[in-house]
Amino acid sequence: MYVAVKGGEKAIANAHALLAKRGRGTADSPRIGYEQVRDQMGVLVSRVMAEGSLYDPDLAAKALLQAQGDVLEAVTLLRSYRTTLPRFGITPAVDTAGLPSERRVSATFKDIPGGQQLGATFDYTHRLLVDELETTDVPPPDVPVDEPMPRVAALLGVDALIESDRPAEGWTDPDPGDLTREPTVFPMTRAERLQALSRGDEGFLLSLGYSTQRGFGNNHPFVGEVRVGEVEVEFEVPEIGHAMPIGRIEVTECEMVNQFVGSADVAPQFTRGYGLVFGRAERKAMSMSLVDRALRRDEFGERSVSPAQDEEFVIAHSDNVQATGFVEHLKLPHYVDFQAELVLIRKLRREFQERQATRESAAHDSTREDTNRLEENA
Amino acid sequence: MNDDRPLLSVTDAGHRYGDRFGCRNVSFDLWPGEVLAVVGESGSGKSTLLGILSQRLRVDEGSIRYRTARADGSGGREGSAEELLELSTLSEREVRRLWRTDWGFVHQNAAEGLRMHVSAGGNVGEPLMANGWRHYGQIRAKAEEWLRRVEIPAERIDDTPATFSGGMRQRVQIARNLVFEPRLVFMDEPTSGLDVSVQARLLDLIRSLVAELGLAVVIVTHDLAVARLISHRTLVMKDGAVIESGLTDRVLDDPQAAYTQLLVSSILQG
Amino acid sequence: MSAPRIVYNEGYLDEQTKRVVRRALLKGVAIPGFQVPFASREVPMPRGWGTGGVQVTASVIGPEDTLKVIDQGADDTTNAVSIRAFFEKVAGAASTTRTDQATIIQTRHRIPETPLVENQILVYQVPIPEPLRMLEPRETETRRLHALEEYGLMYVKLYEDIAKYGHIARTYDYPVLVNGRYVMAPSPTPSFDNPKMHQSPALQLFGAGREKRIYAIPPYTDVESLGFEDYPFEPQRFDRPCEICGSTGVYLDEIIIDDRGGAMFACSDTDYCERTAQQRTEQQSTDTKEVTA
């Protein structure tokens, strides 16, 4: 008797064993500890935390190890764990301007209050592959950084050269919602969009951001500011009646300054695109701010001509857990629908051949002149 | 038929782009079976007017009323429940119903009014299907009939408009807009962009169909010859305002406003 | 700092999430065929692999339930095995392969051949819940079309098929009209299975995890496969019996048996096939006994 589809259970067990074996490598090399991944592969850990929407370097490192380095698999692990965690409450917005940055650069002004600070960056390193890494000593900084670092956009804001970061009067900060807990429908609010972008796939956002620079939705961007640093997270505790600090997280923030020519009602001024991402993720934060600005086309009455300006296109396809799942599901069995298509295509081919046979015999039988298709005559 | 009231009644209607009016203080009544041409140069506000009449643009001032029954009323098209309803008070559902049953729109660019990669028969049949037709043979017969009426060869019924010439596309668009027997059709420069001889043939076709079906039409054109050929009445627009209106023959033969005189003489000289 | 301990809730989904899903299900039952948005959670399998079905099942399953999971009609395909094992692990539910013993059946791409009865729930895994998606990709627009009951576009697609092929060329995920109101995607089940949805005594629930939509067909609801009066819907048929159990009028898998184009046809519903074959054997042995007696 036919048993080809039998044995699924055993096959799965075998596959799992093989996978574990592949993940172990040769048995005499030591296993990597998650602490090593956390500390020595910080950028990768950042990416898993950002796209996994969970700030926890330990868990992200463990997920990466369990996923044998497959980033999207690690993100999926982290998210499937995150979703089971209860949400105790919400934190007030983090204050990224009030805290000293480890890194802070602006492309718009040569010198800014608080100064330009390169910090830990791959920029200006020579990308020369070396055999062994060495840890260099960090020289003590020339000037201790204790100057406040006001946002560059705030400097422009003094003369209203840039749009305000919130509507002027009568504005109460609306509850931004939580797209991991509440159903979302298009069109989204900007807050929801930013949430989606912040957990979106780095590669996808990079390509979209890049496309806006190449004329597909150009918005003339300048990096107003990129900063990386640790911010304090506070938690509103109803029992106490005020916010309590609960820890610090590292974030990367980018404010992109964009040209806007104005409209009948609004004077020309600069506009903003915003990016905020967990950990060290400069590329992602910059891409996010480009795409955020492109998606604000409705607010500025800009024509929608490019993918990066299309909210449904961008948001519906930016989530890599969804994308990879649906692309990869194609390897699941589809015998049943394929069978339905097989039956159909055989039928269509049979009908095609019948039609052709009829046509050929008709052509033989008579010497009808070709019926020229009537085109429009001038 | 209840003809003691106009089909469409426009009073002091205007639309604003920012702080500038695209058109303003436009008033007229359109009666069943009447063809009204709106003429003017580019930028005169004629397209803006068409936009607010067809609910594509917001009415910022004045009122536009259309004679119809409320969707939930039992009166039907010609029943006693018909009244002149302010268009801006209609729900989206009611407006969409009007587009399915009462109104047509012929675009200058056929690609905006047709599904270019659906067959001609499918294009003409779609409004019928949208109105609940569920018999393939009847839908196809009706589509065939209409393609014939607009002089599309029968064997092209299964070809897509993408493979048609400009004139044929316009004729398919007209068939798609007339197949459900609307009462009012908006036309936006339906013949411009076509060769002169093709234009003449298409205008002839439009004129005879409109007369046969007793359609009310608002046609926007920059071409006075088009207005002369098919319209009963003409509005002349300049800088967003109506500067002259009246029976087409009167307006074109005996223009009162200096601007109209200029327009007419330029045609004669041209 | 102590290392974090990873713990999962009993039944995987927390009770609050289950309530969210149940509320969406109730709304879906109240408006048959309407796609209810819900805050779809991540579950420990990839999106597109039944995450919607898993969330629905997790929200309706109880300790007294018996679960059957099929993929392509079979209980033993790998993804079905994986999902069944998941529920055995996290929900402690009893499982079965027998359609007539299950209270909940989670399925991908098939409706069992054994007729369903009252008090059974059929949970469909849905990849694309929007029947108009391939005609109009924009959700803002398709939601409006559903709200205003504007389905002309769907019929244009069917019209084009008939004009081109002389019949409707759609063999799976064949659109249906539910309770005379909403056009609905039955998920990629073959059109062969469509008639089983009509007036089914069982409750049919649909979960699309990636697309964050839930919808439902309550028991004894009209489900009409779209078509024209003169070109009505025709479910696909097979003009041969199953070569294992001899059943006719069932959905068949074509199984390649050699590299010269040889194939055999057998039931896609493995539970139905096994039991029919078994009954036939029993019948034969009874017949033989009677003859000998």
From TrEMBL, chain A:
Any Gene Ontology biological process: organic phosphonate metabolic process
Pfam families: PhnI
Name the UniProt record assigns to this protein: Alpha-D-ribose 1-methylphosphonate 5-triphosphate synthase subunit PhnI
Region (Disordered): 355-378
Organism of derivation: Arthrobacter subterraneus
Automatic annotation (TrEMBL), chain B:
MF GO annotations: ATP binding; ATP hydrolysis activity
Domain of life of the organism encoding this protein: Bacteria
InterPro entries: AAA+_ATPase, ABC_transporter-like_ATP-bd, ABC_transporter-like_CS, P-loop_NTPase, PhnK
PROSITE patterns reported in the protein's UniProt record: ABC_TRANSPORTER_1, ABC_TRANSPORTER_2
CDD domains cross-referenced by the UniProt entry: ABC_NikE_OppD_transporters
Keywords: ATP-binding, Nucleotide-binding
A Gene Ontology biological process term: organic phosphonate catabolic process
Keyword ATP-binding: yes
Domain ABC transporter stretches: 8-264
The UniProt record lists the keyword Nucleotide-binding: yes
A Pfam family reported for this protein in Swiss-Prot or TrEMBL: ABC_tran
Annotated protein name in UniProt: Putative phosphonate transport system ATP-binding protein
Lineage: Bacteria, Bacillati, Actinomycetota, Actinomycetes, Micrococcales
TrEMBL record, chain C:
Keyword hit for Lyase: yes
GO biological process, one term: organic phosphonate catabolic process
Domain of life: Bacteria
Keywords attached to this entry: Lyase
MF terms (GO), sorted A to Z: 4 iron, 4 sulfur cluster binding; lyase activity
Record's protein name: Alpha-D-ribose 1-methylphosphonate 5-phosphate C-P lyase
